[in-house]
Amino acid sequence: MPMIQDILTSSLRGALVALGVDPVPDRIPVERSNRPELGDWSSSVALAAAKASGRKPRDLADELAARLGADPPAYVAEITVAGPGFVNFRLHDRWLHDVLTEVIEQGEEGYARYDLGHGERVNVEFVSANPTGPLHVGAGRWAVYGDALCRILERCGYGVHREYYVNDRGVQMGLLAASVAAAKAGRPTPEDGYKGQYISDWAAEMADDADPGAWAPQRAVADIQGALGALNVTFDTWFSEKSMVESGAIDAALTDLRASGLVYESDGATWLRTTDLGLAKDEVILKTGGEPTYLLGDLAYHRDKFTRGFTRLIDIWGADHHGHVARLKAGVRALGHDPDELEIVLGQLVTVERGGEVVRMGKRSGTFVELAEVVEEVGPDVARLTFLLQSIDTRQTFDLDAVVSKSMDNPVFYVQYAHARIASIGRVAGERNVPRYPLEMVDLSELTHPRELDLLRSLGELPEVVADACRTRAPHKVATWVRELAGRFHGFYHDCYVMGEGVSHEQTQARLWLVESTRIGLAIGLGLLGVSAPDSM
RNA sequence: GCCCCUGUAGCUCAGUGGAUAGAGCGGCUGCCUUCUAAGCAGCGGGUCGCAGGUUCGAGUCCUGCCGGGGGCGCCA
Questions:
Q1: Cα A105 from Cα A415, distance rounded (Å)
Q2: pLDDT band at A406 (very low <50, low <70, confident <90, very high)
Q3: Which residue is nearest to nucleotide B23 (CA to C1')?
Q4: What is the Cα–Cα distance from A529 to A299, expressed in whole angstroms?
Q5: Model ipTM over 0.90
Q6: Protein-proximal positions, strand B, CB < 7 A
Q7: Is A126-241+348-406 a CATH 3.40.50.620 domain?
Q8: Is the domain covering A2-92 a CATH 3.30.460.10 domain?
Q9: CATH architecture assigned to A410-529
């Protein structure tokens, strides 16, 4: 399909040159028409180049159409001019039939696989919630977004490494250990401690001679891993913050920072002169007493990631960490790295509602809904698509009642049902001994119904959708596309029988292949979202 | 005060600077004697927050204002 665009672009360029337009615009817009009655593709170049050509847009469009019409480019059946000066191209259906062939030839593995990354090694860090308790529902957004983005990056030629940063050190860890220990001993929760039910559950679980400081974080990590596993989200590395104290990585980072000349002592603490790096104020890296701050640990961690050979780091954070972005980037620069190699994606927060009321989330107060509970109730597919259908840039309201009680209406079933129907067609074809001939023996020009052509149009867009979703870090674009393809399939399924009375053998063959190409498209799209593609429902 | 995200149908949300702004849910109405009705089709529903600006052309880009969310810790 990009081929079509290239053909039309270069034809238009040639025609503009021949007409003496000077200068010819660098970019010649050729887009899919959203007005099917006017054509399949269209170009607005006559509007943009009118001035340079010394003609009215409409006149330039007419001349372009006449010139191109004299010797039409490949696939082009008709060229017309409409509106203020759009040049519209109607193509032979063959261009869509060629899409089908391409999908089948490249298959589930090969179709829509753009090499944008050229094997670049990317480290994607996501979730990284503190191991101070179970994950709450909102964390599911980062888990699912991050995982889907990784799948898309992989399909686009990046070498992806999924990583979870475990903040198993610092003030919050002390509070967690103290909270569990207090519960164990039957004492009241310490000030600012964690009060959730899970604290007493864990206290009961913990052996009497265990060290709460070591045991509790491990228990939390196990819990988090379980919840993420249920969502089909796994990581290559669980990176412990505490391990960097023992390994000397924190000291190494500190040494590098000192070498930058931006470190000084004041008020008993050690500071990084981030005002020299464009920030409004300096940052503490060693607290009074010598304890590393979160920033220093995070800097050591990012230094370590670069050291491991990644040339691009992507961090996915909730918008509540916005204040940390400039600090971390400044610190990365102080360590001698290009801050542009660190890409931070900020996702807007999730509001959880139940019974029309906002459920306030707080691990310390203990009032939160666990991700694991929700996933157990609705399953990973519903949970994943619910998160993935919406852009990460908008605040999401996760309505528990709607997601749970109306999970049957969840769009995921609409999409999966399309896949199941396709599988069913295959089963019935088997039962009825309907063979499927090799593609090269099948006459695809049988595919002329608007429903059939719409399916192929969607399939033809998939490579661009995937590439766009990759570039803009926007998995929801794949989710939107998958829903559209499913919708078009259901329409086809309703209007166009594949087998049976009134369907010619030739039509059956062409439609069997159309259905197979649709299955491939659904499987690719769902695979990128990490949603299963069932054969029956 | 400054910084980031956001405002599109009753609700939840899509919408690469292009022509007549879409989908799902909800409401009403049709469609199961051929492959799964978890489906299809139709009807109704909009000053794209407001005001300027850039452009041949703005829901989309810029500025300002208004509303919502988040941030500006020796918490993480």
A1: 24
A2: low
A3: A484
A4: 31
A5: yes
A6: 3-7, 12-16, 18-20, 23-26, 34-41, 56-57, 68-76
A7: yes
A8: no
A9: Orthogonal Bundle (1.10)
